[in-house]
Amino acid sequence: MLSLVEDARREFWTTWHGLENVHTQEELEAQSTKMWAARKRLWELDPEFRARMLAEEEKRRVEAELNKEKAHIQDTLLKQKVAREVAEAKSKSDRIVAEAKAKSGYIEKGGLACPKCFTRNINWKIISRKRARREKIGRNIPWCLICNKKMIHLTDK
Question: What's the rounded Cα separation, in Å, for the pair 74 and 31?
Fold first, then answer.
């Protein structure tokens, strides 16, 4: 029995190390087939080899589970970070809207407002003919007198 196990071990390791000496795809496939046949024979005859292979397989399975759990934790942390950043951005935009409402008073629908200084309908001018031609826009567009920005029409709230 011992000589069968030793022969199977020798055959397996010989074919295993023979994989290093192949140079073509056909040789590789033939050597691989021999190696798997020797491995199957050694698996059936040697309980020590079988136990070692099962232990390695279990180790790889546990490692894969740990990697999966680690990836899940990283994904959860990333989702929480993104949610926190979205909440901060939303609160910042809400604060900007509140500042605009406080500066300009009640913002009615369809009115004019400056996007920079939040001034309302009363402070606006019509641009010069030269500037209108240079920027290729109509002269009837209202501009803010304070910060010289184009006023926009408010369509909501």
Answer: 42
Distance CA 36, CA 39 (A): 5
110: left (phi over 0), alpha (psi -120 to 50) or beta: left
**For the segment 82-92, what is each residue's pLDDT rounded down to a tens digit?**
889 888 888 87
Q: Provide the token pair at 76.
A: 């959860």
Q: What is the distance between the alpha carbons of residues 56 and 89, in angstroms, rounded to a whole number?
A: 49
User: Does 121 reside within a domain?
Assistant: yes
Count the domains in the chain: 1
pTM: 0.44
96-118 pLDDT per residue, tens? 767 766 665 554 555 777 777 77
